[in-house]
Amino acid sequence: MIRFDAVRKEYPDGTVAVEDVTLEVPSHGVVVLVGSSGCGKTTLLRMVNRMVEPTSGTVSIDGVDVRSIDKVELRRSIGYVLQAGGLLPHRTVADNVATVPVLQGTSRREARSAALGLLERVGLDPKLGDRYPAQLSGGQQQRVGVARALAADPNILLMDEPFGAVDPIVRDQLQQEMRTLQSELGKTILFVTHDIDEAFALGDEVLVLRKGAEVAQRGTPAEILANPADEFVSRFVGAGTSRRTLSVREVDGRRIVVDGDDRPTGVLAG
Ligand SMILES: Nc1ncnc2c1ncn2[C@@H]1O[C@H](COP(=O)(O)OP(=O)(O)OP(=O)(O)O)[C@@H](O)[C@H]1O
């Protein structure tokens, strides 16, 4: 479990990115932080691996204050996936994935062979292991980013808009694959996005944040959609908008789900 206890972050220029946040992220679940640009999501996420130190308050993992853990050790023990993939451009894909295990003492050969297995696991042809990041598509690079984050078999994965830079179709695929992977691996995942649909697609729980990373509402996607806490959340999730208001029409004997503009969104099973 990750716990934020009364954390506040004021940057040296006086910007208060995180006001006063207390929250828990239970183990083995996916918690998504969603909010507009600049609301403090990234700052909060980076406090977990000490890329940002809180001005006050405490972040702990399974009851251990992260400040008591060596920064380098901590970062190697937590998977971190960024929007740009964060891959090292002058290393091959396989070497990128193998970097942390090698630093942790795994032999190069063993780490490389594990890396090829991980590439397969995230849906890539292991042959791509010999390429350089620039020789891959954006979606493939994101997959490598996920493989690299998983390489040291961390309990915790921090994901900062990892699918933000790819087209909607690839994004959809990556989200589905992440769900499958998570059902197999059961990591503790803290995921940041500004896209409410992505939050609803991936989160066991979703936290809608306002400025200063203040939690406007926390709940399952269904709870938030069914019962938005206030006007801010309601607007953010689009509850009550034509896109969210679905109804059923019968067409040629099949039951089609349509949105408030009568546009089809799916077919009812059964
Ligand atoms: N190093 C820094 N120095 C000063 N201000 C910063 C720094 N990093 C972030 N901020 C400010 O802190 C606030 C929160 O930023 P943060 O990146 O955490 O938000 P975010 O919700 O992740 O936004 P985005 O979705 O755009 O990445 C913003 O006002 C931002 O400009």
From TrEMBL:
Pfam families: ABC_tran. SUPFAM superfamilies: P-loop containing nucleoside triphosphate hydrolases. This is ABC transporter ATP-binding protein. It comes from Agrococcus terreus. It comes from the Bacteria. InterPro entries: AAA+_ATPase (IPR003593), ABC_osmolyte_uptake_ATP-bind (IPR051921), ABC_transporter-like_ATP-bd (IPR003439), ABC_transporter-like_CS (IPR017871), P-loop_NTPase (IPR027417). Keywords: ATP-binding, Nucleotide-binding. The keyword ATP-binding applies. GO terms for molecular function: ATP binding. Residues 2-237 form the ABC transporter domain. Gene3D superfamilies: P-loop containing nucleotide triphosphate hydrolases.
